[in-house]
Amino acid sequence: MASVAERALNIQPPKIKLKARRLRGHEDSTNCCIASSQNPRIIVTSGEDGRVCWFDLRCNDEPRLAMDVSEEPILSLCFNSGNEDNIYVSSGKEIKCFDVRLATTKWEPLENYNYNKEEINKVTCNSKSSFLAAADDSGEVKIIDIRQHCLYKTLRAEAGHTSICSTVEFLPWKSWEVISGGLDSTLVLWEFSKARPYKVVNFGNVSNSGAGQCFNPSLIHAIAVPEIDMVDKLGKICAVAGGGVINVIDIESEIAAVRSKGSSNTRKGSQSKLKDGSSTSNTDEDHSVKKRLHFDYTIGGHTSAVSSLTFSMFGERGKFLISGGNDKLVKVWNWSSYTDAGSSDGNNDVLHLNIGVPQKVNWLCTTTADTDNLVVCDTSKTVKVYSLTYKTVNLKQVKFVFNVSNKAHIENQYYTIEPKMMPSGASLCNICGEQLVLSDNGEMFVACHDCNYPICKPCFEHEINEGHSLCLKCGTPYQGRTNDEGDDVDVDDDDGIKVHENPSIVASQIDNSEDVGLHARHVSTVSTVDNEVNEDSGNSTWKKRMESWKGKGKGKGKDKKNKKKKAAPKAENEDTVPSEQQMEEIKSTEAAAQPLSVVMPITKSKLAPYRTVIIMRLIILGLFFHYRVTNPVDSAFPLWLTSIICEIWFAFSWVLDQFPKWSPVNRHTFIENLSARFEREGEPSGLAAVDFFVSTVDPLKEPPLITANTVLSILAVDYPVDKVSCYVSDDGAAMLTFESLVETAEFARKWVPFCKKFSIEPRAPEFYFSQKIDYLKDKVQPSFVKERRAMKRDYEEYKVRVNAMVSKAQKTPEEGWSMQDGTPWPGNNSRDHPGMIQVFLGHTGARDIEGNELPRLVYVSREKRPGYQHHKKAGAENALVRVSAVLTNAPFILNLDCDHYVNNSKAVREAMCFLMDPEVGRDVCYVQFPQRFDGIDRSDRYANRNTVFFDVNMRGLDGIQGPMYVGTGCVFNRQALYGYSPPSMPNLPSSSCCCCPSKSSKDVLRVSRDAMRAELDAAICNLREIDNYDENERSMLISQMSFEKTFGLSTVFIESTLTDNGGGVPESADPSMLIKEAIHVISCGYEEKTEWGKEIGWIYGSVTEDILTGFKMQCRGWRSLYCMPLRPAFKGSAPINLSDRLHQVLRWALGSVEIFLSRHCPLWYAIGGGRLKWLQRLAYINTIVYPFTSLPLVAYCTLPAICLLTGKFIIPTLSNLASVLFLALFLSIIATSVLELRWSGVRIEDLWRNEQFWVIGGVSAHLFAVFQGFLKMLAGVDTNFTVTAKAAEDSEFGELYIIKWTTLLIPPTTLIIVNMVGVVAGFSDALNGGYESWGPLFGKVFFAFWVIFHLYPFLKGLMGRQNRTPTIVVLWSILLASVFSLIWVKIDPFVNKIDSETIADTCVSIDC
């Protein structure tokens, strides 16, 4: 079956070369043109230079009036319909009105309208000159009352467009209606007086896409409606340019169908698919709806996006529909002859003209004149005017034969311009078509002396002035030619009119466009065993990689000889080297010798008081506990004992948390010194290669667009492209993830060069374009604004395609997904599928649009079969380790979650300043970056930023043995993941993994484990000596030395572990088997009976595999480093919803409990080794015991309510000494916090939020984690967790106010209600008890409000924006609180029992 590109190429009609009249007046590319209806010879144009030019076609080619009205580009123009002396221009977010009669040197607008949120794409005025409509990038349409000079209505994106609104038009026959189109593939008819849509037509569905296939939607770029005087003949129609397809619909028929269906009982939101693949908002078919006309490539239509559309104004008005597109074609459609959209018999003359233009079309319009009636604005500085005077050619009928789906040949007759008759043998200019004239000396003017390509002198001079200094035919530079300013000009030959096109170029245009409705590629090329390269192309690549891996072999000797040969002529000219160049070389050498990083300890003036207060607080705590223990409260002994136990545990937790922060440090990197050392001019880059890992599971919960932004930010990092490889792990084997990655790879060809050209930050397009900053700041390149706008449009189109795939993937077909050739997708069963690998970009893949190489992008989905344990994320990461070792084997690995993008393009260089430093990086296992987040509410209600942990605790650990691994944003040393010890330390003895080295205490299991560890150490030791053997001996040793018990049954992978820090693929690997070997190492049984997950790679045994993996590395003696660049290296998303946040914390706490109950517990693991520093061990102990703090915390938060309800208190009457102790304790707590804020730079709001959520999480998620952890580890009851949602609601922070039911909400809600009830009861007792009751009440109420204030964010989240709470939460909480209160009132256990005799004795003294 022929591909879409081949079919489109076969049916494209021949292009007609027309001589264009060129209007010059702009200094940059032209954007818009409009023609006057009152004066048919007047046209007005606008451009990127912010200029509006008025041309009179009866005069010369210079503007009659040039209006410099804006510093920003002008994208759209329109006349005031009643007075064409007034013109409206849209520049950026603003609309300005000018009166042309007030011509001055400095133009001041008569009116200014600044209502749009983002850049305006189209502005138009209605026929009564009463309203303006402005469509912008936010998807909104602003209706402006130009008589009252105010905003009338906003047609919002929530009800209409969800992406860029690209165009809008008033309906001339409906005074209160407009029609708009956008990149969300929807056409919306609005009744703007009520600001609501009454008809939405979706062109996003494609009729020829299979039921189980993804597709590309048809994006709407332009619409056209006829003038009021054309309606009687043409009807109330609308022409829609969707991608490369043009549809003509009958508006009245569509509206009538909606109204008729609205009166019947139809379902809302359902859709019916029409012939052209679009859909309406109703289900029932209505035969009154007229069939839509559909012009696509099958009848000679556009092969790329249609950017402009208009009805003809010349001759018989509206007879022709004229379109211009990105394929550099203008097509004139005799659309009235296209009477039947379903047949081809009557469509032989529908395509009237097919005109080739120099560059991509931005805008076009027509005039009512007989000549000069087609005006085209393209991406050049000149406006082209074509004369369309039509005569049928009868001499030789122009016939065009095309083939559609191997059907019968059809002959089409085309109209063309009757050529001007020229003298026989006369040479014609290939640009303007005029006859070449002789100069005064009788010689013919020659522009190019190499090929003698005929160009007249005026056209040549214009080409030079336009900056085109290369021959249009042979590409040879014009010698000695300059522009008018005398500057040498870069070449751009797009301004020449091409008569013939290379078929391969056309095919590539179709392949790269979204207009044909399907991916122009064969998805079936992805298979379970797919070769990265074939034999022919792979051998050269393999040889290069082998030569680089050999390093010190023969190649190096040859290089030295070559260098000597090259150095010989240099020696002759050594004396002639300028002194300035010698100084630069000296400076470069000095810079290379500079350090790559420095340690900057906290100043003593900040750190000494901090340590002093810690010691003082420790002493005060000792005195406080001495007082508390020696002064019990006999009347409430159980309450007192409970409080003592809780306070001791809190003090123990504080010690574990505080002392690892004893010696915090700061680090500073010098990336300029890194470049000077490893990137010398004229030499290959010496920077180490890096493999990026991105893991995702479910594309419906982790949106593909977020994953794609992460991938795009990786591909665009500021690092040598041949040193970067990105591996995407799809653990759900979803076709949606694969298809979105295909789209991402294609978009990366445009995005990566754009990022590097303008050095933009961040390099994730979604977050770059959403920045609320002045994007013109520090951007001096004049082309930046234009290219940024084009890139934003490309990204919006890319988003629409990806979101369309997501929308279709919501419902999986019964037969499963299928590829383009009908083959079932291998991953239809996510739990039973083969391994899949596909290489998209890289050394053998596609290049960017500028022809430069792109980083390698690899899709990986490991094999899954029933009955195998796959170990979730840790197993996926280990699979990526093995695949990357086989394919690229970079010495360093950087792993990111799918929702964490690269925010600082130099982040990898920051890490390399540590890892590539021979003094610092020798024993470094990883460099951890802090996590930073987007989309968090301003107050950070639930402490999502974790600022205290990342800015205080981690910097403290950096001064000991290094920060913990937190799961993302970490650059690993690959050798550390393989279980090696640091180079400066010997291998660990087998006893080091046990809590006690004594033989008497070892059981059978421990002895077996020690033997396995000794075998691993022996294997690692032998691996280091294997380079001394040849290839045959090496393969025998690998099979004999039990390496497979450590690394698995892959010779290629085992040899990859032998490479030096330079990385690379091992010598014995067979290039033709690379992908097969990669498939092998991700098979589900590969890790059976190996050390993967036990001693190698990511460690299994906990849902928080990150802590466990980092802990194991540091137990071997490795150290880690913390890198905090000024611009955050990575940013991600966090669940700001209360329920999602609690479930996230529950998962972390459960992982800590699992580690506590495993053999890797930091309390005893690797004590005998002595390589983990004791302060570092305290920090790890704190990470596993903090969930257990929930038990005393719940009890302590309950005590205030009990004290208020019973009238008892946990503290006896205070003496002066006791008061001093309490005051000193509070002051020491405050002083510690203040001094900590002083050296860390953390805000007090962040510290308070952290304290609040410590209580909220402790009484909810941590409590459940303790019980679930014991159930899982002791009873084998497993708990499954869903992935927290990564996408926010449409409104800002909308998800913050959503309440989702979960049992985690019950305990904190109960505590709040109980304490509130206690406060009310306490005040009631005080009111009844008199003045003396108020003193004891103060301490109790203070205690209760301490609990309430800490739980206040939880209370706000529980109430939501609309003060609504799930009924089940209220019922359970009130029930538990009521039962608890009644039980205490009934039992009253802390009130002394008084017998009847005591009462009788008391009553004796009473005088009754």
Folded structure, characterized:
The structure is a single chain. The chain is 36% helix and 16% strand. It is an alpha+beta fold. The protein has an eight-stranded mixed β-sheet, sandwiched between helices. Strands 1-30-29-28 form a four-stranded antiparallel β-sheet, with no helix packed on it. It has a four-stranded antiparallel β-sheet with strand order 2-3-4-5, with no helix packed on it. A hairpin with a 4-residue loop joins β11 (131-136) and β12. It is globular and about 115 Å long. The N terminus and C terminus are likely disordered.
Please give the share of residues in helix. 25-40%
**Dominant shape:** globular
Structure classification? alpha+beta
Number of helices: 36
Strand content: 15-25%
Spatial strand order of the main sheet: 37-38-36-35-39-43-41-44
Low-confidence stretches: 1-9, 206-215, 263-278, 280-289, 340-347, 390-426, 481-577, 990-1009, 1281-1291, 1403-1408
Would you count the extended β strands for me? Answer: 45
Distance from N terminus to C terminus (CA atoms, Å) equals: 114 Å
* Average pLDDT metric: 75
